[in-house]
Queue: 2 jobs
Job 1
Amino acid sequence: MRNLAIRTVSGAIYVLLVSASILGGPYSFLSIFALITGLSLWEFYRMLEKNTDIRIDKMVATMAGVWLFLSSFAGFSGILPMRYMALWFVFMLYLLIRELFSGDSNAFRDLVYTFFGQLYIALPLSFMTRMGFQSDTYGANQYVFVYLMSFFALLWVYDTGAYLVGSLLGKHKLMERISPKKSWEGFVGGLVLALLSSVVIHYFFPTTMGLFQWLGFALIIVVFGTWGDLVESMMKRSVQVKDSGNLIPGHGGILDRLDSCLLAAPAAVLYLLFFV
């Protein structure tokens, strides 16, 4: 009971922090999510090193990912040209050259894991900045919170619905080998709740997207969010850890709260770009 109370309170604080960062404007979003990007990368690389002989230059790799996020924000917002994103390759080149002199017999493997962290965490979070900016009639980029806030709201609604329905009715395992607690009943229950929530969002913001576009947006987020959750569970099992960290009491690390976003964010952005 005590653990449930801790989990509820810490989860609520996380939701409030993310919501406030998005609703507070572009620079509060930038500040909080740059921090989230750095913490997620640090947790990921530490998790890989925990029960293995993998060795990663965590400081430089984390700085690289944060720069990718910051430069993406600057590019999509129009503050700086998109070419500044290319400086990310300077960090990557340093890591490549560094391994030449490290004397590590597993240098190539360490580099693969380093680059995978950038692909798995930094790139999706950088994609997310695209959801926050739209061009106005004059071609200027304006910060609009609706898509970003809706993205997280739909994920949270789905997670809550899947947990409640799965706890009450879950009998058929979704992918028992990876995540024994997830069920098809929970998935369907969470999906229905997310779809209904997208109808409500459309009611309050009718000019952003049509009803069927909002339903498609919710569907994309739920499907890819579920896969994102399962991917992180698979990786944790591979390196034999229960949680990515202990930053959020009752939940584990920041990456444990962010896992579903990491596949859902690029999918949602591509959906918006091609279908909205």
Job 2
Amino acid sequence: MLSYETIVTFMLASVLLSIAPGPDNIFVLIQSALHGRLAGVVVTLGLCTGLIFHTLAVALGVAVIFQVSAVAFTLLKVVGVAYLIYLAWGAFRAASSSIDGAEVPVLSRWSLYKRGILMSMTNPKLAIFFMAFLPQFADPARGDLTHQLLLLGGLFIIAGFSVMATFALMSGFIREWFQTSPVGQRVINQLAGVVFIGLALKLLTTER
């Protein structure tokens, strides 16, 4: 079972990373601003449904790697560290996001939900991120790894849904902030970059 400290740390990191401007929450924000708060919530539900796929893939696959192959575990760790550093570099260099809804198509709620699922499930960067992010919070000494990874994935989904649904419900204010506060966006991106670097260091020192 995960420790209380691990859960708190993981949730704080998950919330911060969910807040950082990216294609998913920008899409949620645009749909909410153009077509109403419910549209944004529906997209968020779709995105979080897709995250279940990534959680299962990591829980079932990484647990085996942890247990049977030292070489595969080391390779996974190196790839994860490299990717987290890449994400940190991108976050530090990120320009302020521009929101322009002029070319956003009007979609039905069912189409929005499916779009969210497909955006999540077919995103290879998200799959790699989950492989790099979730395992470092799991501890083989604290019980079954599969259960721990499933719990971590569930907590990340809760954090992501909470943040993006808030974006949807506060779409007017947040849209205006995104458009008029490049400094604020830069600060969030830099905070996300610091989190990515911290996660990379933590993963680098993780033992099998």
